[in-house]
Design brief:
The complex is a heterodimer. By secondary structure, chain A is mainly alpha-helical. In chain A, about 75% of the residues lie in helices and about 0% in strands. Chain A has a domain of about 45 residues. In chain A, helix 3 crosses helix 4 and helix 4 crosses helix 5. Chain A is flat and about 50 Å long. By secondary structure, chain B is mostly helical. Chain B has a single domain, classed as Helix Hairpins, CATH 1.10.287.3510. Chain B contains four helices and no strands. In chain B, helix 1 runs antiparallel to helix 2 and helix 2 runs antiparallel to helix 3. The chains are: A mainly alpha, B mainly alpha. At the A-B interface, helix 1, helix 3, helix 4 and helix 5 of A face helix 1 and helix 3 of B.
Chain lengths: ~90, ~140
């Protein structure tokens, strides 16, 4: 409990340096994303910038993401399948 | 002072959420409660990143409004649309959190089938008991 409170106090102290909420000129909003907003539709012909970035600029990332889901589903499948086999052996 | 609070209170909300998740992971003994704490922790991180993409002053979701029309395509104002990058990255994070939650729940089902409890201390007690019975035989096979 004490460790949790100390960590929380340190994190709240750390927010002192964060940009203000909704600031249009914060570093996250002013360095890379304007280029995506202005160029994405011209380059990918997709009005939705989120899907343009997800499926065009970062399509390899999305491929890896689907690999993550595939691994998770396969591991769930084998984790839960083994039990049934064991029960069959016991019966 | 009020301005400062209004500018930073979203981060404080996420820190509080994150600490709730951290306490659930560290302080609780039930494994399902630990898993829920991990989910709260991940949700607070996702909210933190999405909140960095917010722009005040009439910005809307990053879907271009006049993309089909030739005359409107050149008039894209950056301040009219929210930052799309945090949304994209947090989509990935949501997918990863769903995957970890699924695997963890499957593992919890296995643990429950084997020990018939999800309380951590009871599981440790059962393991200690079984080890106490087994170790002498393993250590001294000749006796």
């Amino acid at each position: 409990m004490a460790a949790v409170i100390i960590t929380g106090a340190l994190l709240i102290y750390g927010t002192h340096d964060m940009p203000a909420w909704g600031d249009p000129d914060s570093p996250a909003n002013s360095h890379v994303s304007p280029r995506y907003i202005t160029e994405a539709t011209k380059k990918t012909a997709t009005p939705n910038i989120v899907s343009a970035v997800l499926a065009d600029y970062r399509s390899y990332d999305t491929l890896g993401e689907s690999a993550v889901i595939f691994t998770a589903s396969i591991s769930c499948f084998f984790l839960l399948r083994r039990i049934r086999n064991k029960e069959d052996h016991n019966d | 002072m009020t301005e400062y609070i209004l500018a930073k209170y979203n981060y404080w909300i996420y820190v509080v959420l994150m600490m709730i998740g951290l306490y659930a992971m560290m302080g609780k003994r039930n494994l399902v409660k630990k898993l829920i704490g991990m989910n709260i922790f991940q949700t607070s991180i996702i909210l933190l990143f999405v909140s960095t993409g917010v722009k005040k002053g009439g910005a809307t979701v990053p879907i271009l409004m006049h993309a089909g029309h030739e005359h409107g395509a050149q008039l894209i104002q950056v301040s009219d649309y929210l930052n799309p990058l945090p949304h994209v990255l947090m989509l990935t994070a949501i997918v990863v959190s769903i995957a970890t939650t699924g695997v963890a729940l499957a593992t919890l089902i296995l643990i429950y089938k084997r020990y018939h409890t999800l309380e951590e201390d009871e599981i440790l007690a059962i393991r200690r008991e079984s080890r106490a019975y087994k170790t002498p035989r393993i250590l001294n096979p000749t006796d």
